C-alpha cells in the first residue's frame, strides 16, 4: 500500500471517528445511546405491544438497565479515534512549530496575533 493510500485511509478513519464522536457527544446522540443502553429488548416489546409478552405475567415496570455492548463499544472506538487524532495533531503542531488551539484562543482574547512566533 502506497504512502498516499495509507494517508487517505488514516484521514478517512479520522473523519469517521470525528463524526461519530461529535454525534455521540451531541444531545440527540446521548439520548439515543442512553435509550439503547437502558431499555432491554423484552421491555421494549412490552411497551410497544409487539411480541407475545402481555399474557405471560410481564409487567410494564422497568427492568434493571443492561449495558448495550454494541453502543458501548462504538462509543469507546469513537473516543479512541478522537484521542488518537488529538495526539497526532499535537505531534504535527510540535513538528511544524504551531501553537496549540488553546494558545491561539488565549492570544485572540488578548488581542495579539494568532500566528506562530519564531
UniProtKB/TrEMBL annotation:
Residue numbers spanned by region Disordered: 21-67, 92-118
Taxonomy, superkingdom: Bacteria
Keywords carried by this UniProt record: Signal
Residues in the signal sequence: 1-20
Name of the protein in question: Uncharacterized protein
Provenance organism: Kocuria subflava
Top-level taxonomy: Bacteria, Bacillati, Actinomycetota, Actinomycetes, Micrococcales
Amino acid at each position: 500500500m502506497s504512502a498516499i493510500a495509507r494517508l487517505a485511509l488514516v484521514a478517512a478513519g479520522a473523519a469517521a471517528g470525528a463524526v461519530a464522536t461529535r454525534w455521540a457527544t451531541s444531545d440527540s446522540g446521548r439520548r439515543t445511546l442512553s435509550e439503547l443502553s437502558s431499555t432491554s429488548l423484552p421491555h421494549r416489546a412490552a411497551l410497544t405491544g409487539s411480541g407475545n409478552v402481555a399474557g405471560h405475567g410481564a409487567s410494564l415496570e422497568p427492568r434493571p438497565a443492561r449495558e448495550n455492548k454494541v453502543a458501548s463499544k462504538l462509543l469507546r472506538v469513537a473516543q479512541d479515534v478522537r484521542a488518537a487524532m488529538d495526539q497526532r495533531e499535537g505531534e504535527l503542531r510540535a513538528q511544524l512549530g504551531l501553537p496549540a488551539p488553546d494558545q491561539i484562543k488565549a492570544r485572540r482574547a488578548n488581542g495579539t496575533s494568532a500566528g506562530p512566533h519564531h
